[in-house]
Amino acid sequence: MQVIFQLHVANVKKRNLRQNLKMSEIKTNEYWINLWLEGSTQFHLEKMHSSLENHLEKFIAGRKGIKIFFPLCGKTVDMKILADQGHHIVGVDVAERAFREFFADQNLEYTEEPLKNIDGKLFQAMDGRIRLYCMDIYLFTKEMEGKFNAIWDRASLVAINVEDRIKYAQLIKNLMFPDCRYIVAAMQYDINQCTGPPYSMTENDIKNLYPNCTIEEFDQHDRSYLFKHRGLNNMMEIMYLLQPKTNSETI
Ligand SMILES: C[S@@+](CC[C@H](N)C(=O)[O-])C[C@H]1O[C@@H](n2cnc3c(N)ncnc32)[C@H](O)[C@@H]1O
Q1: How confident is the model at residue 193, as a pLDDT?
Q2: Residue 137 CA, closest ligand 1 atom number
Q3: Average pLDDT over every residue of 140-148
Q4: Does residue 65 lie within any of the structural domains?
Q5: Residue of 38, 72, 133 with the most ligand 1 atoms within 8 Å of its CB, for mutation
Q6: Mutate which of 48, 92, 94 to test ligand 1's pocket (most atoms within 8 Å of Cβ)?
Q7: How far, rounded to the nearest angstrom, does the alpha carbon of residue 217 sit from its chain's CA centroid?
Q8: Where residue 187 falls among pLDDT bands split at 50, 70, 90?
Q9: Cis (ω within 30 of 0) for the bond into 198?
Q10: Residue 170 belongs to a domain with what CATH number?
Q11: Range of the domain at 188
């Protein structure tokens, strides 16, 4: 009996260790590049994100021809839709395949050129309205494209390694104009049942990353179907609008 109990304890310990290792597993740029090369891009949405479509005014706020940033953009169709509405799009993603697929899917001609002083390439639609940087997001700086009036962050902040959240938030804060409207889609689920990416993110996590921004929840979606196969019962996508506080010296 004693031996069986000890074996059981050893197995539980092994399982917990495996789970902890899994939770802290760092996803490298090669991991993402390979997902694109394998076509394992189930995160991609064929249509405009419904929160963007239904709450577009929260994002655009009546402004014309604004600069919109798409960190970790993949090949999201939202970039083309907003460019067609007269806005200027800048995206960053490390996977070149994502950009080639984007321009092919959207039937757009483009140019590509190597970046100066940084390992990466700039892909650009012929009318210059969509500029996509193929590079590590952490090397992107405001010297490259200036600041932005709006930032669309879907499957981005929640996709990065949890250890990198502060570094990522600092980069985003450097890119925000005082009138910036920043939308974050946060995935929320029980982290004891499953691990990311996408990594679970609470409203408090966002507040801690962006203390000088107001935060408003404005929409939510039940995405439980996405991770059922990984043993997760419930996963919500909660949409937040962040804006720099007016009295704040720095964002
Ligand atoms: C889950 S996907 C989301 C893509 C897009 N936001 C969407 O909604 O479809 C995350 C993207 O981040 C990119 N990525 C991950 N780490 C990156 C990094 N350090 N620098 C640039 N891109 C990165 C991946 O190549 C991938 O396309």
Answers
A1: 87
A2: 20
A3: 98
A4: yes
A5: 72
A6: 94
A7: 17
A8: very high
A9: yes
A10: 3.40.50.150
A11: 2-244
**Number of separate domains in the chain:** 1
What pLDDT score does 21 carry? 42
- Tokens representing 84 are 């067609």
Which residues have any ligand 1 atom within 6 Å of their CB?
Answer: 29, 32, 43-44, 72-74, 76, 92-95, 98, 136-138, 154-156, 159
Residue 72 lies in a domain: yes
Tokens at 50, concatenated = 């419904």
Given pLDDT bands bounded at 50, 70 and 90, which one contains residue 248? Answer: low
- Residue whose CA is at the smallest distance from ligand 1 atom 4: 74
- Identify whether 39 is part of a domain: yes
In a domain, 251, yes or no: no
